[in-house]
Amino acid sequence: MREQHKRSITRWGQFCSTALSALLIATGFALVPPSEAAEVVKIGAIYPLSGQVAKSGEDTLNAIKLAVDVINGKYPDSGLPFAKPGGLPKLGGAKIELIAVDHQGKPEIGAAEAERLITQEKVVALIGTFFSSVAASVGQVAERNEVPFITGESEATPLTERGYKWLFRTTPSSRTQAKDFFVFLRDLNAQHGQKIQSIALVHENTLWGQEFGQSITGYAAEFPEFKIVADISYQQGTTDVTSEVQRLIAAKPDVVFHASYDAEAILFARTYKQFNFTPQGVMAIGAAFGSSAFRDALKDDAKYYLVREHWARDLAGKSPLIESVGRLYLNAYNKPMDGTPARAFQAMMVLADAINRAGSTDAKAIQKALQETNLPPSSLIMPWEGVQFDAKGQNTKTRGIFIQTLANGPATVWPTDLAQAKLVWPRSGPR
């Protein structure tokens, strides 16, 4: 009798379970099996972790790791999306597993690692790559394999001009940013009575630097009050810029526009000081002239350089999320967050949002969710109007700022409605 009683209870339990499942499905709900709830979502992160920009590559990857920790529930009180209770709710609370690789600053290694991450590690998406030249090669691999690839910091305009359907960029392109340089100078002349006329252009010779140079010269016709008196391209990775600086001295520009990675930015700044080259202003695109690596290397000589940025912690008054993420990053890695790591953090959060809305790790479902992304400013740590991609995969709601390293560190000085400190102009020079 006992065995019959046990079998009756078992059959009753099975019946109830089946009936409940049928009811939940009929009403639009479904039970998530424990095995699915525990499943991880693999993301491949491709960054320069060795070579001349290894420090910035590590800082940027750390921001993505921080975003993953937030998403996975390590900081439930941060106020950030997914932080509480943690995991991707539409995938049963699944956690993200980040697989990071080093592309060494070489496009061919980036492409090979992307292929391996997709075919062997079975990642559902890629994120990276700091270098635009590497992003171009990774983008080709992602397109061929039909796997989503998101970049938060690779800026070269052609990345989103190739008709790719699997590449998405949250950060503005070089072309968009280049225009801000001229708008800034025009504003400075009009509102502050400056007389800025001549511009010298200095850029490294990989895809990113070349695109910035072309974008600047392309916009020059729209701003006829300014004249480009020198356009100097140099070999990325060079260890001597004496001849380039001597050409700048001979050109006597009011302002220098720069596109340089970490090592060369430091090298140029030291050579400027050596030859006492002090134009009214030095304005840079990208992270190098405003990075912690630059400040650590140059100390007081890092002051007064201007960087066309995307994020600054002093904008915390505009959004509590900025303060929250800045504090988390500082506590986790014992250094302030810079603009490029902030952009990478935001890109990771955008990707997680899309995967969650897709409710699936299927590549086409994630692609569709990215295409439909429309995030409001209140959900971002960037001072943008939101995140929404056009048909080319470019975020159309970005907005730029200029920061300047002052006595207390980097400060937002432009545009006026976002400025948190007074601009120092003309540049006082190293002290």
Task: Write a concise keyword list for the protein shown above.
disordered N terminus, 7-stranded mixed β-sheet, 3 domains, 431 residues, Rossmann fold, 5-stranded parallel β-sheet, alpha/beta, 42% helix
Structure description:
By secondary structure, this protein is α/β, with parallel strands linked by helices. It folds into 3 domains: 2-31; 36-169 and 317-379, Response regulator (Rossmann fold, 3-Layer(aba) Sandwich); 175-309 and 401-414, Rossmann fold, CATH 3.40.50.2300. The protein has helices spanning 2-26, 34-37, 54-71, 107-119, 132-145, 174-192, 207-219, 242-251, 262-274, 292-298, 320-333, 339-358, 363-371; strands at residues 40-47, 95-102, 125-128, 149-151, 167-169, 198-204, 227-234, 255-259, 281-285, 306-309, 401-406, 409-414. Helix 5 (132-145) links the parallel strand 3 and strand 4. Helix 3 runs parallel beside helix 12 (339-358) and helix 12 (339-358) crosses helix 13. 48% of the residues are buried.
